[in-house]
Amino acid sequence: MLSACMFQNPDLPADVFTACLTTPIKVALRWFCSRSLLKHDGISKELIDRIPGRQTDRKTPLGELNWIFTAITDTIAWNSLPRALFQKLFRQDLLVASLFRNFLLAERIMAASNCSPVSYPRLPPTHQHPMWQAWDLAAEMCLLQLPGLLADPNAEFTPSSFFSEQLTAFELWLAHGSADKKPPEQLPIVLQVLLSQVHRLRALVLLGRFLDMGSWAVDLALSVGIFPYVLKLLQTTSSDLRTTLVFIWAKILALDRSCQADLVKDNGHLYFLKYLDAPEPTIDNHNRAQAVFVLAVVCDQHPKGQALCAAANLLQVLLKWLRVQLPVLTASSGNLLLVKWLCLCLGKLADNLPDMAAAAVRDGAADLLAGLLQAQLPDLRAAAVFGLGSLIHSLPRGRGQDAAAAAAAAAAAAAGMDRDMATVGGAAGVAASLG
Predict the structure, then answer these.
(1) For residues 378 and 96, what is the distance between their CA atoms, to the nearest angstrom?
(2) Cα–Cα distance between 385 and 388 in angstroms, integer?
(3) How far is Cα 274 from Cα 281, in angstroms, rounded to an integer?
(4) What is the distance between the terminal CA atoms of the chain, rounded to a whole angstrom?
(5) How many other C-beta atoms are found inside a 10 Å radius of the C-beta of residue 281?
(6) What residues contact residue 145 under an 8 Å CB cut-off, 6+ apart?
(7) What sign results for the dihedral spanned by CA atoms 344, 348, 353, 359?
């Protein structure tokens, strides 16, 4: 609920509050112009009403101002409101979010005339937030170009440096920030920049650096609404974004597995499958391991995700890369990490899917996994045991004996290694119980 008392200002519409809620950009420009020296430079309200462009086109003056206004009001709200209230008012419904963004403008304009609009839920005063100064600067830079743009239809509009400057401020925070310090106030702006092709790569790289600071950073990014932005980016075909985007998704899913449903709903899993199987030598094993991790989470206790990944031939891709990596298995962290997650993803894909487990055994998955029971690293042996156990457990009873026997034989071959007795004994016990 939003409401306010009436007041008169000759430079603004008669009903200022309603005008702020319905046409915020033009009201904000009129109000700013009435309080600045621009009113002496020929910038009139009639000129402002003719500002060129469309709100949906960010390359035009009106569209860019609307984009900056959205970023600034989101930032003010995120830095001023409790996280739960911000999610409720600014992320759950597009229309409600738009109204409350515009309400922040109304509060700023009316507070200058000693009036206070009210809302339910009640919002704290935000009219003195320092981000409003950034809006004033963006508005001034646009209005200074307005006479020339209207006089010459062929004149070029010079975009604002607002987003570039905010990314620089965010980069400075990354150099000195930590979990113990105040969160970066530019985070909502960084998400808005993801919509821009000009700054997208830089914004993604900086966002990846932020998420790499820990789970607290991922939680902050999710609270500001990162998910729909990075989900939409999976539809892009830009090769320069892939590695950073895969890393960001790995960080998100490591903290919040509930995103798996929305990811497969838009066929987002195909992005990571293609990345994993891409032939480019520039993609190293560590990056491929991150893509396999995302696919493993998609399949984790998620039947729809398993079915969609199976239909996309994930099994064949996993086995292909296991066969490629096993002969050259070295102490390289990327190589070992990739093999480990290939084993785990194979187990998640076949978990409680008898037909998939049978297909995996038929294509040699059990033999590949059994060969890893003699690996030196415990976590690699554990991943192989998990994959084998998942296959054996998921096989139809009539088809499980051969795979169980193969696993038992591989376990017996490795049983001479003292350091591996516990791991191998577990695999042998599973095999014997199903054999």
Answers:
(1) 52
(2) 5
(3) 14
(4) 67
(5) 6
(6) 61, 155, 157, 158
(7) negative
Please give the single-letter amino acid code of residue 419.
R
Which residues are paired to 3 by β-bridges?
118
- Give the Cα separation of 304 and 353 in Å (integer): 12
Question: What letter does residue 418 receive in the DSSP assignment?
Answer: G
How do residues 189-214 score in pLDDT, each as one tens digit? Answer: 998 898 888 899 999 999 999 999 99
Task: Tell me which residue of 46, 43, 26, 31 sits closest to 110, measured CA to CA.
Answer: 31
Read off the tokens for 121: 């839920």
Provide the pLDDT for residue 415. Answer: 45
Residue identified by tokens 């403008």 is 105
Burial 420-430 (b: 16+ CB within 10 A, else e): beebbeebbeb
> Strand ranges (DSSP E) for 288-412?
none
Token reading at 46: 């009639």
pTM of the model as a whole: 0.84
Q: What is the pLDDT of residues 282-308, one digit of tens each?
A: 899 999 999 999 999 999 999 999 999
Report the residue count for the chain.
435
Pull the structure tokens for residue 264.
Answer: 């497969």
